[in-house]
Amino acid sequence: LKRVPPPHPQDHPRGELLRHKRLIYWKRWPIEPWIATAAARERIAKVWRDGAELNAWLGRHLESAK
Length: 66
Known about the structure:
By secondary structure, the chain is mostly helical. Helix content is 45%, strand content 0%.
């Protein structure tokens, strides 16, 4: 976004962050042999579970902003 969205003032101290349209949550691993094994499924699922709390928080707070 070019401007801070309403109802926030244009000089909001976190205006730069408020102008973002999206948020990306990710985990990066080096390429190692485990990535081609069954262990990869559990490691990836763990990252999704770890992000669930953040996702729930965003859902609560972004829904209330509508």
